[in-house]
Amino acid sequence: MRHPFEYAVIRLVPRVERGEQINVGVLLYCQQRDFLGARTHLDADRVRALAPQVDLEAVAAVLRSWDRTCAGDGPSGGMKLGERFRWLAAPRSTMVQAGPVHTGLTADPAAELDRLTDALVR
Questions:
Q1: What's the number of domains the chain is made of?
Q2: What does the mean pLDDT of the chain come to?
Q3: Which domain holds residue 47?
Q4: How far apart are CA 34 and CA 57, in angstroms?
């Protein structure tokens, strides 16, 4: 049986005023399967080509915090999965941000997250 899910591409926007971005991950939420996950991939060569001034370690730390939030570590532990997804997918003007939310159907949210990461990020 396939279930509806929502996802957003996690993107790195080194200089918001230029509007350039690099896809660095995918955030996926499936309410019926109680699933919230993020898969990230930071391609250092791509980032350096677009924005050599970016602190890659700082960006990697932010991406790890997305994983921890999905897992419910820290302050997000008291939030429901849907609340965590909405919080992470909310518009923000930081260097690491989620793009628009899209929907789909899947029988396996984890496999779908891997597929989307391969198709949209790697």
A1: 1
A2: 95
A3: 3-120
A4: 31
